[in-house]
Amino acid sequence: MDARLLDYLQRILTARVYDVAIESPLEIAGKLSTRLGNQVLLKREDTQPVFSFKLRGAYNKMVRLSADQLKRGVICASAGNHAQGVALSARRLGCRAVVVMPVTTPKLKADAVRTLGGEVVLHGDSYSDAYLHAAAWGEREGFTSVHPFDDPDVIAGQGTIGMEILRQRQGPLHAIFVAIGGGGLIAGVAAYVKAVRPEVKIIGVQMADSNAMIRSVDAGQRIQLNDVGLFSDGTAVKLVGEETFRMTRTLVDEFVIVNTDAVCAAIKDVFEDTRSILEPAGAMGVAALKQYVARHGLRNQSLAAITCGANMNFDRLRFVAERAEVGEEREALFAVTIPEDRGSFRRLCEAVGPRNVTEFNYRVSDEQEAHVFVGVATGNRNEAAEIAEAFARQGFVALDLVGDDLSKDHIRHMVGGRSRLASDERLCRFQFPERPGALMRFLATMHPSWNITLFHYRNQGADYGRILVGLQIPEADRASFQEFVDALGYPYVDETDNPVYRLFLR
């Protein structure tokens, strides 16, 4: 056995986590197991005292500090769950804890840290911004930094989860699915599992818009992302740790990338089996497990997913519920063009057949053609193709919208918003941080001669707002527009050439 792997095995076996953590249950997800034809096991880290696994690593690090270090206090940067672990550990050990959190952190998590006695400082739009601020503050004040993932004691604390899984499941186990942010959880779990039962696969999971670890492994070196998606705030890390990268690159068997819709569907799956509501990061393992089973055609295997957190803002559930049906492939969305003739609507309904229509948006706008936004309940993804064929047999042109974020986030709420006055219109989707002043910054830096022709925003309870903006920008100002969005720094997508925009809004 590799000497470094043996060292981690010893660290995990001697880790001190149970002063604050519980041995979380490994439960069978009955409904999901039946549906997938495999035994699905959930490692319920969402049942920890702070509703996340993070207190394991934080406490294992802090309990080993000297009396002098504890007297001076500790500092950390965190998007929320590690912060709660540090605050709880500090209260247990009787020391001061300063926690720097991004301003985009859900209020639920910031309030939880304060309740546990931590001093919360909000700084920056991402974990990386908060980390730099915490590092400077800690050096200035003499605090000991408790890193959320890139520390051997933190990694060993998280590794006790792997130890518990193998103790609780001594029979056959095909794979364990682990969400990755900075890499502390997967590094610790992989270290123990590969040392004790190397035949068990470790599958790493990342969001499509926060995949720093996968990119780093592919490149053979750590890659820093310019920005990360904020839906799964618990894994929104631009740069993974040096040690976690080394271990993940060596020990992890495979990676799976999941998207927002799949994670929303997984949250619903776990709720139906446990009546517990996971945060997005906590459901990533389940989403990947489902995807892995479908891709490999697995049957009658035992698969474990670590449900690593449940610090979910209640308001975000509106968004999760809306996207879950698409994520679990139970809803197909189409833009259907039909002739503006009597009987056309009836033929459209005949093409849908006995299926349940989940959404229907239409507004008359042309004497010759009608563009209809249709949502249809389906049993599986293949059924969408069958519906599209039924539309074609009726002579209708149908555009599948399941993979189109513009349609799912905005257009479905705005069908019919045409205007003859909107010449030279440029349509863009922006992500604004949900904090005071974000919109004013946009308006203040925009050229005064550009007219806003369309503005759509709906608060989904997330850490960022999805905003659709139409701007009248003359051809001569296109270069100035690019300079404007570059300086603004908000993630954006130009949707002017999107066919859905041309069908419903142009």
Q: How is this structure best described in words?
A:
The chain has 506 residues and is of the alpha/beta class. It has 4 domains: 3-52 and 152-325, Rossmann fold; 54-145, Rossmann fold, CATH 3.40.50.1100; 332-403, 2-Layer Sandwich (Alpha-Beta Plaits), CATH 3.30.70; 420-504, Biosynthetic Threonine Deaminase, Domain 3 (Biosynthetic Threonine Deaminase, domain 3), CATH 3.40.1020. The chain has 20 helices and 18 strands. Strands 1-2-10-7-8-9 form a 6-stranded mixed β-sheet, sandwiched between helices. It has a 4-stranded parallel β-sheet with strand order 5-4-3-6, sandwiched between helices. A 4-stranded antiparallel β-sheet has the order 12-13-11-14. Strand 4 (97-101), helix 6 (107-115) and strand 5 (119-122) form a beta-alpha-beta unit.
List keywords for this structure.
506 residues, alpha/beta, Rossmann fold, Alpha-Beta Plaits, 4 domains, six-stranded mixed sheet, four-stranded parallel sheet, globular
| Main sheet characteristics | 6 strands, mixed
Q: What integer value in Å does the Rg equal?
A: 25 Å
* Quaternary state of the chains: single chain
> What structural class do the secondary elements suggest?
alpha/beta
CATH C-level label of the largest domain: Alpha Beta
- Count helical runs: 20
What is the annotated CATH architecture of the largest domain?
Answer: 3-Layer(aba) Sandwich
Distance from N terminus to C terminus (CA atoms, Å) equals 64 Å
Number of spatially distinct domains = 4
As a percent range, the share of strand residues is: 15-25%
Q: Determine the fraction of residues in helical runs and give it as a percent range.
A: 40-55%
Uncertain segments of ≥5 residues (pLDDT<50)? none
Beta strand count: 18
Give the overall silhouette: globular
At the fold tier of CATH, the topology name of the largest domain is: Rossmann fold
On the 0 to 100 scale, the average pLDDT is 88
Write out the strand line-up for the largest beta sheet, numbering strands in chain order. Answer: 1-2-10-7-8-9
